[in-house]
Design brief:
The complex is a heterodimer of chains A (about 230) and B (about 290). Chain A has about 230 residues and is of the alpha/beta class. Chain A has a domain of about 160 residues: Rossmann fold. Chain A has a six-stranded mixed beta sheet with strand order 6-7-8-3-9-10, sandwiched between helices. In chain A, strand 7, helix 7 and strand 8 form a beta-alpha-beta unit. The radius of gyration of chain A is 18 Å and the shape is globular. With about 290 residues, chain B is an alpha+beta fold. Chain B has two domains: about 180 residues, no CATH class; about 100 residues, Alpha-Beta Plaits. Chain B is about 75% helix and about 10% strand. Chain B is built from eight helices and four strands; from the N terminus they run αβαβααβαβααα. Chain B has a four-stranded antiparallel beta sheet with strand order 2-3-1-4. The longest helix of chain B is centred in the N-terminal third of the chain and has 53 residues. The radius of gyration of chain B is 31 Å and the shape is elongated. The two termini of chain B are about 30 Å apart. Classes of the chains: A alpha/beta (about 230), B alpha+beta (about 290). At the A-B interface, helix 3 and helix 4 of A face helix 6 of B. The structure holds adenosine-5'-diphosphate and magnesium ion. The site of magnesium ion has 4 residues of chain A, from helix 2.
């Protein structure tokens, strides 16, 4: 082992020459081209780029909703190409994801949606209620606990998804445009929540197309354009 | 966790609604048919068993032997394979029995110049001797004795009846099987409906890291619940019908079949039906799983 490897902080995720090409009929759409980077434990990383740059695609690769066309991905030490189904499920339980389209379970209330992931984790029943409300309070949604997803505004749905992601106290928080449907005040609140989670030791990766947001975060920023990683700065 | 899974399964069952209800009904029909024929077959089997025990062969003798010869003959016949017991009936005893049977018309017998009834041996076969093959061998052996005039009685009619009983069993199994397949398919349809309703939901569950058994077990459970409900319903119907009909049928059955009581299925039989129903339902749930997983 080289000395460098000893002082190197443990990698939270590591992408090596990753390509993702979608086939739409006969047409091949390269969504990601030769992307490589590393994120270490405890970092706060912003993924910035215009709409269509490949941000969502990149995030989906990280929790293995998609598999890369080429290249290697490791997340939390797990080689995603070789991971078995049970390992992928376990990985997803260590990651909190705020999907761009929220993806709440449609037949369940906000409370049940957040409680579901805690149940899946095997959280004791008595702890579940307290932790669900703690998370809902953090995102300012306690009053909507009994509402169904269809009754929520897009902003509320996104905050519910954030509550679901943070309730489990994940090692890694991935958020895809978490402020996309929010007004400025609410966006600032959501960012505060994410910062708090990060301060608690969770590694954070936030994707956004909003330049202003990327600037206010003033963290390490990965800039993506046309599927290529243009800049890695901060 | 179990309560959670059962809750999910019930939620799914409600979602499948009317199809789940018809699945339950079909399972009830399948198990009702199976159980009904089982009940019938069990009682017929009991009748056959009792007749087998009461089977007697009568060996009519050419001449009435002396009592010493009779004793030796009885000894010899008792030594034949398949014989449980032997009793010698002399001419006089036969006539006495005839008088008893005739009752007040016994005077007819008194007008006979001489006793026309032959002496005979009443042979009770062992269980082995009462089977078709055993009886055939036994009858052949008895007929071959020099003292024998004729061998009366036999077991063919019981065998015909036993064949009938087996036919009833087969028919019941066949009907139950056909209805069972229909039930499985209906459970599969119900489960497939649930699957479609839940496809997105299952995808989201997987994305938040739910292990596969939590995603899928509710599907299996709702199938099994349909089976269990159908089976319990069938058992309840069988029991009610038996309770209602048995007292009415028993006098008839006592006369025709010689059975004093119509028994119900044993607890083990009932448990078997319930288990079969639950498995049928589970199988239906599993098949839907297979269909839905690419
Ligand atoms: N499932 C898909 N099939 C085909 N093309 C896709 C699919 N998902 C994304 N794309 C394409 O990949 C590119 C990147 O999309 P996306 O990752 O959603 O970008 P972003 O999240 O940065 O807006 C776009 O051109 C998009 O049309
Ligand atoms: Mg996107």
């Amino acid at each position: 082992m080289t000395p460098a490897a000893i002082i190197e902080p443990p990698a939270m995720m590591e992408l090596h020459r990753v390509w993702k090409v979608y086939s739409v009929g006969p047409v091949k759409v390269p969504a990601l081209s030769d992307v490589s980077f590393q994120v270490t434990k405890g970092e706060f990383v912003t993924l910035h780029g215009p709409s269509g740059a490949g941000k969502t695609t990149l995030l989906r690769l990280l929790y293995r909703e998609e598999i890369p066309s080429e290249g290697e991905i490791q997340v939390l030490g797990l080689d995603l190409a070789r991971a078995r189904r049970g390992e992928v499920a376990a990985l997803r339980r260590s990651i909190g994801v705020v999907f761009q389209d929220a993806r709440l379970l449609p037949g369940r209330t906000v409370y049940e949606n957040v409680a579901f992931v805690l149940r899946v984790l095997g959280t004791p029943r008595r702890e579940i209620t307290a932790r669900v409300f703690e998370a809902l309070r953090a995102v300012g949604l306690s009053a909507r606990a009994q509402a169904y997803p269809a009754q929520l505004s897009q902003g509320e749905a996104q905050r519910a998804a954030l509550a679901r992601a943070i309730a489990r106290k994940p090692l890694l928080l991935i958020a895809d445009e978490p402020t996309g449907n929010l007004d400025e005040g609410m966006a600032a609140e959501v960012l505060d929540v994410i910062r708090d989670v990060w301060a608690g030791g969770t590694t954070v990766l936030v994707a956004t197309h909003q330049k202003a947001l990327a600037r206010t975060l003033r963290r390490r920023t990965l800039t993506l354009q046309n599927g290529r990683l243009l800049k890695d700065e901060g | 966790m179990l309560a959670f899974l059962v809750g999910e399964a019930l939620r799914d069952l409600r979602r499948a609604g009317r199809v789940a209800a018809s699945a339950i009904l079909l399972i009830t029909l399948a198990l009702g048919a199976l159980g009904g024929f089982w009940l019938l077959s069990t009682n017929l089997g009991r009748a056959v068993g009792e007749w087998r025990e009461r089977v007697k062969l009568v060996v009519y003798l050419r001449r009435e032997p002396s009592s010493a010869d009779a004793a030796a003959l009885v000894e010899r016949v008792r030594g034949l394979p398949g014989v449980a017991s032997v009793r010698f009936v002399g001419k006089a005893e036969a006539l006495g029995t005839l008088r008893e049977v005739l009752g007040k018309d016994a005077a007819v017998a008194d007008q006979l110049l001489q006793n026309p009834l032959p002496a005979s041996l009443e042979v009770v076969p062992t269980a082995g001797g009462a089977t078709p093959a055993g009886a055939q061998a036994l009858i052949a052996g008895l007929a071959a004795m020099p003292e024998t005039e004729e061998v009366g009685g036999g077991v063919e009619w019981i065998e015909r009846f036993a064949r009938g009983q087996r036919l009833v069993t087969l028919f019941g199994l066949g009907l139950g099987g056909v209805l069972g397949v229909a039930a499985i398919l209906t459970v599969t349809t119900a489960t497939t409906l649930v699957l479609h309703a839940r496809r997105d939901e299952m995808e989201i569950m997987r994305l938040v890291g739910a292990p596969e058994h939590i995603v899928r077990l509710p599907l299996l459970l709702q199938g099994m619940t349909q089976g269990l409900l159908g089976a319990l319903l069938a058992v309840w119907i069988l029991f009610s019908v038996h309770l209602l009909l048995a007292p009415r049928l028993e006098p008839l059955v006592a006369e025709s079949l010689g059975l004093a009581r119509l028994t119900f299925l044993t607890p083990l039989n009932l448990a078997t039906l319930v288990v079969i129903g639950t498995l049928l339902g589970g199988l239906g749930g599993l098949l839907a799983r297979g269909r839905a997983t690419p």
